[in-house]
Amino acid sequence: MPRQPRLDIPNILHHVIVRGIERRDIFDDNHDRARFVSRLSELLTQSGTRCFAWALMSNHFHLLLMPTTVPLAQTMRRLLTGHAVYFNRRHKRTGHLFQNR
């Protein structure tokens, strides 16, 4: 049976948790973290999404987000795809970076 779609309700807080596949690191150093936060900031501005809190650990992160006009799924897809491409190129690796829900 397929999964139920995620709730993506505008103007409601969403606690987003993303973990590396097999609990592997998704940030190797401060450069990776800074690049991620910079990209997150750009996407939040473009999408009108508000960020109330964030926490980055080596193998996962938490975001407390409130989407407005752009669906949260679209913003997260752009953030995660961009970080995976960047991380794989920088660290000369291939394959998935993030765990499925």
Notable characteristics:
alpha+beta, Alpha-Beta Plaits, 101 residues, 37% helix, 2 helices, single chain, three-stranded antiparallel sheet
Topology:
Layout: E1 14-19, H1 30-47, E2 50-56, E3 60-66, H2 72-90
Antiparallel strand pairs: 1-3, 2-3
Helix pairs in contact: 1-2
InterPro entries: Transposase_17, Transposase_17_sf
Domain Transposase IS200-like: 9-101
Organism: Geobacter sulfurreducens (strain ATCC 51573 / DSM 12127 / PCA)
Number of domains: 1
Please indicate the percent range of residues in DSSP E strands (runs of 2 or more). 15-25%
Gross geometry: globular
Order of helices and strands: EHEEH
| CATH homologous superfamily (4th level) name | Transposase IS200-like
CATH class: Alpha Beta
Helical percentage? 25-40%
Total beta strands = 3
Strand order of the largest sheet: 1-3-2
Low-confidence stretches: none
Distance between the termini: 15 Å
Radius of gyration from the alpha-carbon trace, in angstroms: 14 Å
CATH topology: Alpha-Beta Plaits
Structural class determined from secondary elements: alpha+beta
Largest sheet: 3 strands, antiparallel
Number of alpha- plus pi-helical segments: 2
CATH architecture: 2-Layer Sandwich
Mean pLDDT: 95
